[in-house]
Every structure is written in C-alpha cells, then in structure tokens.
Amino acid sequence: MIPRGTSVMELRLEGGEREVVQDTVIYGNRKFTGDIGDEDDDTQPESNGQWKKYFLKDMDEAHQVVCMKKINGDAAHFSGRIRDGQFYLIVGTKNVHMIIREEKDIDKYTGDRYTFAKVVARCVWDTLPALGDKHYRFLQKFLHLTNCTAICEILQPENQHIMNLSALEKPRLHVLGFTPPAGDEDPTSLVAFPPHHTLHLLSCLGLTVPAHTVIQAEDVQRHREEIRQGKHGYREEGEVLYFLDESEKTIGLVKTKTVWYIMLRALREKVAYAFHKSRQQQQHNAEKCISGAHRGLKRLNKWLLFSESCLEEWKKTCIILHYMDSRRN
Fold it and tell me: Could you tell me which of 143, 127, 29 has the C-alpha nearest to residue 75?
C-alpha cells in the first residue's frame, strides 16, 4: 500500500544521453487506524480490532510499546536533498508538496491548491534555521544521506480543531519521527528508527516533539483503557501507540483517543450541521436537532461504555452548545 502524499522528483541529468533519474522524496506513514471512533472523518473502522490488519507482524511479537501524545493539528512532511552543493527542502501536507531552495521560492507556487502547503513551508522554513547553523547542517546531511521523510503535525491558531490553540501567536511545528525511504516491498519496520530514540535526537537538535512514555506490551490494553478515560491527560486528543519487537523495529501503530475528545468532536459535527441547516431553512426546529444529536451520543455509548449519568451530562452539554450556536445565527 502506497502512503498518501507520496511524491517523486524527476531529475534530467545533463550529459551525452541526458539520463533521467526518479527519486521518491516524500514517503509518509503507511495506513494505520484504531477502534471505532478513533478516526476524525467518516471512514471509521468496520469493527474494533481492525487495526491489527495493518501490522507487519502479529502483535504478540511486540515487546514494548512507545506511547506518543497525539497532536491535534494538521499533517505535514518534509525531506531534503543536496544537489550541486545546494540544499533543497521538500515540504508540504498530505497530497500537496513543493520544493524550495530559498524562502522566496514559496511564493512561486500559486493557486488555492498550495494555500495550506505554503503555511507548512513557511513554518518549516522558520523552524529549521532557528536550530542554529550546526544543528541545521547536521539535519540537512541527515535528510540527504538517509532519504527519510520527517512526519510532523503543525498547530495553527487560525485552524483549530478541538484543542484550544488561541495562546499560539503563529503556527508551531511538532516533529514526530521519520519514515524509511521507498523501495522496500516487504518492510520490517513502519518507521526508520525506534521512535523513542528518534524523539530524543530531535529534542537534542532543538525541535519540538510530543511527550511520550514506554510501556511493556502486556500492559497495552490497560493503558488504552486509561487513555480512553482521560487518566493520562483529560483534555487531550489521545495517543498513538508504536508496537516494537525485540529488535526495536516498529511492527504496528494504533491510535487511541479520549472519550472527552470523541464526544466533543461528535457534538461539534452535530452543532455545525444544525447551524448549516438553520441557515438554509426559515423554520429551524431546535428540538429536532437536539433529539438527533442525543441519539448519536447514545449510539457512541454502545462501544464507549460510560455510565448513564455521564451520558446525561453529555446530553446537557449538547443542549448548551446548540443554543449558544443558535444565538450566533
């Protein structure tokens, strides 16, 4: 399965036969998922445990698990190549990437397609040189020699999801790790290096990284249940778990989100839908919208399994959010 956003650079080398070389410059994370409700879009897993099919090995071969805090931002990538003594930064998000040598190159990409990619490019461009000349040159050589892709999340105060980012004055880059270069049809690891060691290296370079813990594989089910209930951070999105075998190769990834995040995300979608419908219709039936939202919360509780009293509190929150939103209309 080819990762989303894979980008190939084609080089036409000068010479007698004008050789053409293709270089996969962006190769992001392979697909991974979690249980029902752990996806932020409508493509939820068909059942709990479906995440196991994306593992490279049976999860019983995992010895330890690196639990990395989920960053509630937007996906971003960067890599780098050195050609004729010049460093070129390849940077972007999901399906849109660009190559730049100087900051002014960012403005050469025009059109709506590049709007967010340019935000990412400026954030990465501001972040990397700020590491200092020594660390920045090390990172340039590292990216060129390894052909790895840096996997990141960018937090934008102008594009908030569930977490409150209002305290940020400008976009902030969080680097999560590196994926190995393309070409291996039978990979032994989903990431280039053990994730906890990678985070330590990135932190030493001066980059912002997510918090993490390391647990034994036999404790993973208990840890996931604790994440759900917010015992490792209540007002947080959740964690991504990296399953490592005895050689510290990452054989699988799983996302696990908190009940708090899942419920607020569901409420936001319901309120946004109701607001959209109310602007289309002269007669807005508030009770009907609230009733529909309550049914949705009850369906979620079939697998989240929190108490009836907790469900009633979420229903009250739904009513408050709906009427707050209706006043804006």
Answer: 29
Domain spans of the chain, in order of start: 1-31+72-209, 54-70+212-257, 260-328
Do residues 92 and 77 touch, judged by C-beta distance below 8 A?
Answer: yes
Token pair belonging to 124: 């990465």
Distance, first Cα to last Cα, the chain: 45
In this structure, how many other beta carbons lie within 10 angstroms of the beta carbon of residue 192? 19
Residue type, 141: K
**Is the CA virtual torsion 290, 292, 295, 297 positive or negative?**
negative
**Residue 135 burial (CB < 10 Å; 0-12/13-18/19+)?**
middle
How does pLDDT run across 113-133, given as a tens digit for each residue? 999 999 999 999 999 999 999
pTM of this prediction?
Answer: 0.86
Greatest CA separation for the chain: 77
- Say if residues 109 and 98 touch (Cβ distance below 8 Å): yes
Two tokens, residue 66: 């690196």
Q: Residues 175, 202: contact at Cβ < 8 Å?
A: yes
- φ, ψ of residue 276 to 5 degrees: the values are -65, -45
Q: Which helix or strand (DSSP H or E) is residue 122 part of?
A: helix 115-127
| Strand 33-34 relative to strand 250-257, pairing | parallel
Task: State the Cα–Cα distance between residues 99 and 26, nearest whole angstrom.
Answer: 11
